């Protein structure tokens, strides 16, 4: 102690102790006591937290995987429902009926009443020109021949597109089904949806204020907005995760 406190606490000073020496001794004792109390407690707290974090990690991961699986099933159901609804219409309605915009208006109304989310409905001939259209945009007469989704529908019976901008300059996605005529031509019935329809499907995954959930396609392009300001059709960097 004499070495730590210096000459101010020499043996000859006991009859007349110096206040500074006692203050240093008191501070030293308090510091040692706190150190021996706090350091073990801190170590124990960190060790306990790490233990419980590792113990609960598999459980939390399993919950997230279950929610993701359920949401994926809901998305698949939404896609299937959208395609089957249009397939039923294009099978039951004649080309003349689908060319009648009054009839198309009734069809779109029924789709919205039954399923919601539909923005518009259009009839497109094999040349890519939209001959009949009902919806909030001025898209009748537009030619889609050079758009990716139209190229896909020419080789498929049905197609569900990625989110894209298109003529309306608003992120949306399209569902299209094709009907082939006896003369070898075809026509397409197409409906579109805003990205809100996808956002609603993944909303069950938002389990807290700090949770950010969004959809991308396989190229890493956003299909729904995300919490840090990104909007649909914007590429984002992603880890190379296996596709399941």
Task: Write up this protein.
There is one protein chain. The chain has 244 residues and is of the alpha+beta class. It has a domain at 78-198: Beta-Lactamase (2-Layer Sandwich), CATH 3.30.450. Helix content is 46%, strand content 14%. It is built from six helices and five strands; from the N terminus they run ααααββαβββα. It has helices at 2-5, 19-92, 95-99, 101-115, 148-155, 196-202; strands at 118-125, 130-134, 158-160, 172-180, 186-194. It has a five-stranded antiparallel beta sheet with strand order 2-1-5-4-3, with helices on both faces. A hairpin with a 5-residue loop joins β4 (172-180) and β5 (186-194). The protein is rod-shaped, with a radius of gyration of 34 Å.
- Terminal CA distance reads 69 Å
CATH structural architecture of the domain at 78-198: 2-Layer Sandwich
- Element pattern in H and E: HHHHEEHEEEH
**How many β-strand stretches?**
5
Estimate what percentage of residues fall within beta strands: 5-15%
Secondary-structure map:
Elements lengths: L1 H4 L13 H74 L2 H5 L1 H15 L2 E8 L4 E5 L13 H8 L2 E3 L11 E9 L5 E9 L1 H7 L42
Antiparallel strand pairs: 1-2, 1-5, 3-4, 4-5
Can you give me a brief rundown of this structure?
The chain is α+β, with helices and mostly antiparallel strands. Helices cover about 45% and strands about 15% of the residues.
